[in-house]
């Protein structure tokens, strides 16, 4: 296996570093240039998913959920010059509210 210089050495080898990328893109750039809408992302697992995707190159995200105050605060916290995050109130229990 060749030595790759664009990522830290994994104890599992290069295959683990590229495992989730069909284009052989390093995980640190897995979502580069993409935008995601993540439901239930004002806290917990949804928020952690967005944070992970941002670390992996996500260009922007829409946080979606019922907790407006938390969603707006998290969107402001996660937004940078390079990555925009916005909050949209949604309640997926009711189709009319979507």
What this model shows, in words?
- The chain is of the alpha/beta class.
- The protein is 29% helix and 17% strand.
- It has three helices and three strands.
- The protein has helices spanning 14-18, 44-55, 68-78, and strands spanning 35-39, 60-65, 84-89.
Structure annotation, total helices:
3
Strand order of the largest sheet: 1-2-3
The total count of strands amounts to 3
Biggest beta-sheet profile: 3 strands, parallel
| Approximate shape | elongated
Alpha carbon gyration radius: 16 Å
SSE pattern: HEHEHE
Strand content: 15-25%
Residues in helix, %: 25-40%
Task: Name the average pLDDT.
Answer: 83
Structural class per helix/strand content? alpha/beta
Distance between the termini: 49 Å
- Segments where pLDDT lies below 50 for 5+ residues? 1-5
Q: Can you give me a brief rundown of this structure?
A:
The protein is an alpha/beta fold. The protein is built from three helices and three strands.
Search tags:
98 residues; alpha/beta; disordered N terminus
Question: What order do the helices and strands come in, and which of them pair?
Answer:
Elements: H1 14-18, E1 35-39, H2 44-55, E2 60-65, H3 68-78, E3 84-89
Parallel strand pairs: 1-2, 2-3
């Amino acid at each position: 296996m060749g030595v790759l210089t664009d990522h830290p050495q994994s104890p599992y080898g290069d295959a683990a570093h590229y495992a989730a990328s069909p284009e052989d893109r390093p995980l640190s750039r897995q979502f580069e240039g993409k935008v995601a809408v993540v439901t239930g992302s004002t806290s917990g697992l949804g928020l952690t998913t967005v944070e992970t995707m941002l670390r992996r190159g996500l260009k922007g995200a829409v946080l979606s959920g019922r907790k407006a105050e938390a969603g707006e605060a998290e969107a402001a916290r996660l937004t940078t010059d390079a990555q925009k995050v916005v909050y949209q109130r949604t309640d997926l229990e009711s189709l009319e509210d979507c």
